Amino acid sequence: MSFETPDLMAEARRQIEICNACRYCEGFCAVFPAMTRDKAFSDGTLSHLANLCHNCRGCSYSCQYVPPHEFDLNVPAALANVRQDSWERHVKPAAFAKAFHAHGVAIMGLMVLLIAGFFMAAKSGGEGGFYAVFSHNTLVALFLPAFLLPLFLVALGLRSYWRETGGSCIRLSDLKEAFASVAKMKNLAGGHGEGCNFEKEDRYSQGRRFAHQAVMYGFLLCFAATSVATLMHYLLAMPAPYGLFSAPKLLGIPGGLLMVLGGVEMIRLKLKADPSLGAARVWGGEMAFVVLLVLVSATGLALYAATGTGLVTALLALHLGTVMTLFLLLPYSKMVHGFFRLSALIIEEQKKRGA
C-alpha cells in the first residue's frame, strides 16, 4: 500500500477503526488504551494517537490483518505518516520540513559547510583563549537568534497542535507523569517492559530505548555544560577554554560521548529496520538528522582533544557550523518530535483523568 496519498487521515482512520474493533494489541503501548476511549476518530484524535506512537512496531508483527490479508493493515506506517503530517502542518512554513526530508543529507551538509566557512572567514582576535578565534560578542549575536527563533516557531506549532488535540489547563500531576515517562522512555519499553520490535521483528529488544536515552541524556548534559560555561563567563569572568576537571568539561565530555554512542547505535538500528513500517518518504531526512547529532558531539569532542594545536580554528568553525545547523533545522527535522511527544503525553494524562 502506498502512503503517498492526499488523505493520510482517512487511511489512518480506517486502520484504527479496525484495531479498535479487534483490540488484540490493547496492552502493547500507550496508543491502544487511548484508542479504546473513542468509537469515532476525529483528525485531532488521530494526531494525538500518532504522537503517542513511538513506532516500536510490535503491533504490526503481532497483527493478523497485515498483508496479504484484505484489511491490509500497517498501523506503524499509518501513524508515522499522520505524525509527520502533524509536525509539518503545525510548524510553519511546512515547505522547509518537506524539503529537508526529501533532501536531508544534501541540505544538512551544505548548511554545515556554508556556516563553517562563514566562521572561518569571520575569525577574529577577541578576548584571548577560546575567544581569540571567534569573539564572544560575535557568537552571542549569531547564536542567540538562531536558537530562539526556531524555538518560537516550535512554540507556535505546539499551540496549534494543543488546540487540535484537545489539550486543556495543565496540572502539576500531568507534568510529573509525562516527564517520568520521558525520563524512562517508557513507551519504548513496550507494554510488557521487554522492549520493542523495531529492528528484530518478532524478537524484543531494548536497544532502541537505550540508544534514545543515551542521546537524550547526552544532549541534556551538553546543554548543561554550555549553560554553566555561560554563567562562568558572565558571573565569574572565567572565559573558555576550561580544564578537564571544570564543570563544563565534567558535564560536556560524558554528554558528547553519550550522544556519539547513542547516535551511532540509532543509525545502525535504523539501517536494520524495515523502512516500510515507518514514514518512508522522510527516511532520508530522519537519517540526516541523526548523522547531524553525531557530528555535533563528535566535532565538540575533537575540538577539546585538539586544544593547543593548529587544528583548533578549523575544528571550532566546523563544530559551530554543526551546532547552528542543528538549531536552524530544529522546527523541521525530527528533533521537533520531542516537543510534540511530550505534549501528547501531557494531553494523554489529561484525557485519562477526564479533563
Automatic annotation (TrEMBL):
Gene from which this protein is expressed: tcuB
Keywords, in A-Z order: Membrane, Transmembrane, Transmembrane helix
Lineage, highest ranks first: Bacteria, Pseudomonadati, Pseudomonadota, Alphaproteobacteria, Rhodobacterales
Source organism per UniProt: Falsigemmobacter intermedius
Regions that span the bilayer: 99-119, 139-158, 214-236, 282-305, 311-332
Recorded superkingdom: Bacteria
Name assigned to this protein: Tricarballylate utilization 4Fe-4S protein TcuB
Xref: NCBIfam families: CitB
